[in-house]
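Hi R.,

Here's the chain you asked about this morning:
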Amino acid sequence: MDDISSTPPPTLADLVARGEPGQALRALTDALTYAAGRADERIALLELRVGLLVRLGQLARAEGDAQAMLTLAARAHRGAYRVRALCALSLVQQQRGQPEAAFRSASEAASCAARMREGDERNRWITLAAQRRVAAAQRISAAAPQAGAAGPPLPVG
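And the predicted structure, written out as tokens:
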């Protein structure tokens, strides 16, 4: 007979894949409560929750988490946290249909990443993430209707 305690709990990815994003969101929120004083864990958990909230279409909450990440980064005086927060904010702005703001946030993230110390593997990863966010924001910005346009084209025929 299998001991039930030997079964590992589902991961967040498992919960989302099984169609249980609400349960994943609750797990992240609970984990944030327990990570109260640890900035590194809070940044990682908030980053995950921003992505999940965006996926769920809860953009106001996602933006609140991205802003919380920025506040945490400022308090911790950590450039890597700021880069991650700006990338999260850029993602939210992109999903909100704000391509210019998304591009500005992503560009600021890339600039901040470029000022970070070279040689650290984590910094290379963060720099790459910022550069990918800039590229995504550029694609969205280029595809967005020009300012002052009269709206979507009318159907022909």
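The chain has one domain: 13-143.

Let me know if you need anything else.
M.
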